[in-house]
Specification:
Length: 605
Amino acid sequence: MTDSDNSNKTQIRSDQPKVIARGAEPGVFDNLTQITHYSASHNHSAGFAQARELVKQSQTGKGLLLKKRFLLEDVLGHGGMGTVYKTKDLRKVEAEDPNPYIATKVLNQDFKDHPDAFVTLQQETAKSQTLAHPNIVTVHDFDRDGDTLFMTMELLDGQPLDQLLKAHRNKGLPKEQVWKITRDLCAALAYAHQRQLIHADFKPGNIFVNRDGSAKVLDFGIARAATREAHKHKFDAGQLGALTPAYATIEMIKDESLSFSDDVYALACVVYEMLAGRHPYNNRSALQAYEQKMQPKRLDCLSSREWKVVSRGLVPLKSGRYQNITQFADALFPRRNPMLLTVALGFAVVSLAGAGWFGYSQYQAKQHLQKTIAEKITAAQSCFALQNFDCTIEHSLVATNLDPANNVAAQLLTAAQTAKEQRVNDERVRELIAEAQSCLQQQDLDCAALFLQKAEAIGLHNSQVVSFHEALSVARAQQAQSTAQKQLAINSALTRAQNCLSSKDYSCAVNSANAVLDQDAANARAVEIKQAATLAQGQARELTERVSRLMGDANNCMEKKNYACAIAKAESVLELDADYQPAATLKNRAQETQRKLKETGFTIK
């Protein structure tokens, strides 16, 4: 057995050089714990004695014992799911079986740590155990020993196809060998598909070529759940393994529902790679090949009919390629010309019984197929009633794959896909409206409108969208009303500031301008009035100081009876402020006093 995402697949050759000899390298088994001890006191056969001796050796570091039965000896390979060991089954040793070896895969920490790993992988192992086919690796069991989870399976003799292809890079394998392997792969996949199991991780690393030239498919139901049938455990083993893009369809890359056609595409890629020694799309995924409009290079070793079949299997779009393995295999390996059957007419009587049995078998198979389709449709209908759309899609997809013309299954599939998409859209709309509500609470209506626009693009008539659209309209109306009221207040304050400035009430003008700027800091008219009022305030203060100083001088002149000086100072004040009455009064008084003195004969100095 091998790990689905590991290029080092030499672990299942029973005669290959050991990667790690028993007891040769400390720490090989350090990650395994809770290992049980071996005993069987009721048996004293030669086989048991040998088994007991092996157990003693394991206690000194030569191997590791699981479940008092499986002695892990050599590390055969590592992968994403865990480590594969060449293992002696002590039950076979006891029974003196000449070939007591099996393969054991010990799961890594990612699987061990997941709470549903044991239950789910045991279900997946059960699926693999139903695939009793000569071209599918045999999985024996799935178990745990303390904290150690492991699977046991047959030990194969040969090498993985990916290693075989590396040795023939850019050259390819002989066509006869490729067709032999391809027939085995078609047989394995068709057998699994009849049982509604889709491999979903088909690639050279999951194909093993035995020494006799036959091929086996590995990791069925282990790398990923094949049909993804709904059950209470949501853990999917495939989520811990990496998707292999080079052999993945557009639907798989986009994480859409699986179909038999996914395995067709992967198989066609493998067939091309075996023939050419290279990937048809240079290891690009189907999505990249489609987006970049890549075309696989024509293979000269194929006839026109063969190339037509292989190239159709390589079509990136699901609608353009074969929908199941049987269609692909029948086209690639067509049955002999029916005219040749005339040669066998002499054997008609002998074959009547066989023909009758064959017809009955075909009838039984058809009945079983119809029963399976009916069961899947019933399950899909129940899931749809419970609004479990993923479950509906899974069951109806199986039914449509088995019977593409079944309208009920097709309608269920379409309805479930539509409903699922609507549910996703509703959730996205809900998130966007929540963001819009947050913006609205902060009075950022432009922000709210942006999120609303995104929500409308998803569901224009969604009730949440309609409701928020109304709320935003109300908020805009309230904002417009508030803005209008604010503008009225600003206009009124500007008028008052201008009037105060005109009447030289500069403090009033500054205060009124500040009232405007508090609401509109960039209001140019308010800034202009404030600057003018402030400047005028300074000039008025300076004028007052000069007038006061000159009036003081004029009063001093009057006290000294220097009336000409008093008149001159008063006139200077009146030049600065012609309306300044105290200066006019002082000037008149000085002139009158000066006149009276002249009339009485006094000399005025």
